[in-house]
Amino acid sequence: MKFTTNKLTMKKDQPKNSGNQKKDDMSKNTTKLEGAMTTNQGLKVNDTNNSLKAGERGASLLEDFILREKITHFDHERIPERIVHARGSGAHGYFELYESQEDITKAEIFTDTSRKTPVFVRFSTVAGSKGSADLARDVRGFATKFYTEEGIFDLVGNNMPIFFIQDAMKFPDLIHSVKPEPHREIPQAASAHDTFYDFVSHATETLHNHIWLMSDRAIPRSFRMMEGFGIHTFRMINKEGKSHFVRFHWKPMLGVKSITWDEAVKIHGADSDFHRRDLWNAIDAGIYPEWELGLQVIPEEDEHKFDFDLLDATKLIPEEMVPVKIIGKMTLNRNPDNFFAETEQVAFHPGHLVPGIDFTNDPLLQGRLFSYTDTQLSRLGSPNFHEIPINRPVNETHNNQRDAHMRMTVNKGKTAYFPNSISGGCPHLAKIAQGGFDSHEERIDAKKVRGRSESFSDHFSQPALFYRSLEEWEKEHVAGGYAFEIGKCTYKHIKERMLWLIAQIDEDLAEKVAKSLGMKVPDDIERPINQAIGADADVEKHQPGPKKMYLEKSPALSQTHLKSEGIRSRQIAVLVADGFNGEQLETMKKKLEAEDAMVKIVANHGGTVKCGNDNELEVDAALLTTESVVFDAIYIPGGRKSIDALSKEAKALKFINEAFKHCKAIAAYKEGEELLDATYVKDFKDDKAILINEEPKAFIDAIAQHRNWDREKEAAKIPV
Ligand code: HDE
C-alpha cells in the first residue's frame, strides 16, 4: 500500500532558498489552509458542527473524542501574557552592514558586508495588558532578534535611551507601581495614578526616564517613526581580544514623529490598534520601514572620562560628546503569518549573544540576564522554548541538553554527556579561533557589598539637559504631560513632592505644572520624608545637588533635529461627497502617491461616491466609521454639490476642526475653500500649513513637516 502524507500538516509553505535563511527555516513548520480537515491525530473529519448524541435531541456522548479534542484544545489556547511588554506587534526583515567594523568587533554580522541577516522585530508598550490600546503614554519596547550564522543575537531595547532604575533589584517595585492598582485593577495601561507617582517621587533615579515619558516620545505617531536604543553600555571585542564600550542606536529613516496627547486620547476610541495596523498596512503596501543601526563607541581607556558612569542605565551619552557612527540598515519587509506563533511566542533575551559582543557590569543589565530565561519558563512553559520555530537559530545546535516538556528534537545516539568517547567526543568544543564564545576577561578586585556606586548619584543633571534641549513646543507638551499625570493623583503630598522634584530639574517647568494643577511649588519638602518607608538612607543620599552642565544643550534629543524622509506612508484623507471634482482629486492623488503617501477617500457615506462627471470611486472610510486623528493630513477637492453636502455634515466640520487643532496640513481647492469657511480654519487662512488653491508640491512639503506647531497655542482654544 502506498503511504500518503497528510497535506494540511505536512505541506511546506515556502520553497527552500528564498534568499532568507529564517524564512526557509520557518517553512518547515508553516502550513497552508488546504486539504481535508482532520483531527490532531490525522483522522479525516466529516462533521465539525454537531456533537455525537443519543438521538438528535438527546444528551451528548462522552465517547465523542472529536468534540473533546476540539474543546480541550480551545480551553488551553491562551498562555500567560508577558509580565511587562504584553502588548506588541512584530515583523520580519533583514539587516545589512554598510562597512566592516572589524576594528572593534569580530562578530560576523558586523564584519561581513556580504550578509543579509534575517531579523524579527517586536515593538511593544510596557505597562498595559495584551489587549490594551496602542496609544497609551508609555515607553515602547524595540526588540530585535538577529538570526546570524553564529547563533541568535538579541538587541532588546526601548525607544528611549535610558531606563527608570539603576539596579535590577528595584524592577519589581517599579513595575508593581505602574501596573493597575491591585485592590481594584485600575487603571489599565496608564502611568497616571497614585502608586506610580508615589514610587517615582521617592526614587529620584527614575526622574530622567520619567521626563522622557512626559515628552512626545511616549506617544509616537508610528512604531516606524521611533528611535530604538540598547540603553546599557555593552562591549564589543575584536579579533585581537581588545574591548570597546558600545551603545546601540536605531535611527528611523522616516524621522522621529509623535502625536499630541489630545489625539492619543481620541485614538484610544477611534482605533485602539492604531500602531499595530499602521505597521501591518505599511509592510503590506510595500512601504517597508527602515532603520539605520548606529554605535557610540568608547575606548576602554576613556571609561572614566565622563561626568556620569557608563554603567548607569539612567544616563545617556550625548551624541554631541560621542557621535553615533552609522554602520548598517534594517528593513522590515514581511508581516507574520500567524500572530501567536510568531509575535506572541518570540522570546527575547539580552543574554543571547554572538562572539564579538559582550556585557558590562551595569547592574540593571546583569539582572536582566537572569530574568529573561526565567520568564520564558512560565510564559512558554518549558526550557525547550528555543525549539519554537520563531526562536530557533538558523545554524544547527548541538549539545547534551535533553527531554523536558514538548521536546521536538529527536536526539539520536547513546550519549548525552561530555566528555565522552562513545560518540567520538561529540558534540565537541569549539575552539575560540573557530568561533567559540569566550567571555571578555576583566579584572575584578572588590569587596562583596550590597550597595551602589557613588558615581550613580546624580539624578538631576540629565533630566535638566533633556528639557533644555527641547524646542518650545516640545517643552509645552512635557509640561502638559506632567500636569495631566500628576493631576490624576489623589494624594496631596505626592503631588507636592513631584512639584518640588520637577523644580529641581527646571523651575519654570515646575511653575507651569503647578499653575495647571492650581497648586504652588513647595519651597522644600520634609526630609527624610517618612521614617516608615525605609528608604531614608537612599532618599538622603540622592537629594539634588548642583546640576552638572557638561553641555548647554544636546540638539540630538529634540525631535526637530532628527533626520526625516518625505511623506512616505503618510495617511491622507480626501474629504468628499457626491459631486466632487474628480480631476482635482486625480491630480493631487497622483502627486501624493508618487511620494508613496497613502490616499484614502473619506465620504459622508459608505459604498461608492460619484464625482461631477458621474464616475464612481470606492469609499475607503465613511465619516461615520472614522476620525481625523487616524490621518496625517486632509485634502478637500472642489465640486459644488460635494461642498454643499459636506458643509451640512457636523461630522465633516468636526473632522476638519480636529485636524486643524492637531496642527495638521489641510489643502482645499476651489469650492473646497467654502468648507473651510464653515470651520474654525476660516480665521487661520494665512497659516503655513493651510493651503488654498496651491500646487500639490506645497501640500506635500507641509505634510513632510509633520505638524505646524506654530499654530498650536491658538488652535488649542478650538472646542473640539
Ligand atoms: Fe525587560 N523584560 N526587564 N527591559 N524588556 C521583559 O521578558 C526585565 C529592561 C524589554 O517583545 C520580560 O520575555 C527586568 C530594560 C523589552 O518580547 C522580562 C529588567 C529594557 C521587552 C523582563 C528589565 C527592557 C522586555 C517580560 C530590569 C530596555 C519585550 C517578557 C533589570 C533596554 C520583549 C519577556 C518582547 C521584556 C525583565 C529592564 C526591554 C520579565 C528584570 C532596561 C523590549 O523578562
In short:
It is an enzyme of class 1 (oxidoreductase). This protein is of the alpha/beta class and 720 residues long.
Summarize the structure in words.
It holds the Pfam family Catalase. Belongs to the catalase family. HPII subfamily. The protein is an alpha/beta fold and 720 residues long. Among the domains are: 82-391, Beta Barrel (Catalase HpII,  Chain A, domain 1); 566-715, 3-Layer(aba) Sandwich (Rossmann fold). The chain contains 21 helices and 18 strands. Strands 1, 2, 3, 4, 5, 6, 7, 8, 9 and 10 form a 10-stranded antiparallel sheet that branches. A 6-stranded parallel sheet has the order 15-12-11-16-17-18, sandwiched between helices. A two-stranded antiparallel ribbon has the order 13-14. α13 packs antiparallel against α14. It is globular, with a radius of gyration of 28 Å.
Present the secondary structure layout.
Blueprint: H1 7-10, H2 21-27, H3 65-75, E1 88-97, E2 116-125, E3 140-148, E4 151-158, H4 171-178, H5 194-202, H6 207-214, E5 228-229, E6 234-237, E7 243-252, H7 261-270, H8 274-284, E8 290-299, E9 325-334, H9 339-344, E10 357-358, H10 363-379, H11 461-469, H12 472-487, H13 492-505, H14 507-517, H15 536-541, E11 571-576, H16 582-594, E12 598-603, E13 608-610, E14 616-618, E15 621-622, E16 633-636, H17 640-647, H18 650-661, E17 665-668, H19 672-677, E18 690-692, H20 696-704, H21 712-715
Parallel strand pairs: 11-12, 11-16, 12-15, 16-17, 17-18
Antiparallel strand pairs: 1-2, 1-9, 2-3, 3-4, 5-7, 6-7, 6-10, 7-8, 8-9, 13-14
Helix pairs in contact: 4-5, 5-13, 6-11, 6-12, 12-14, 13-14
Bound molecules: CIS-heme D hydroxychlorin gamma-spirolactone 17R, 18S.
The site of CIS-heme D hydroxychlorin gamma-spirolactone 17R, 18S has 26 residues, from strand 2, strand 3, strand 4 and helix 10.
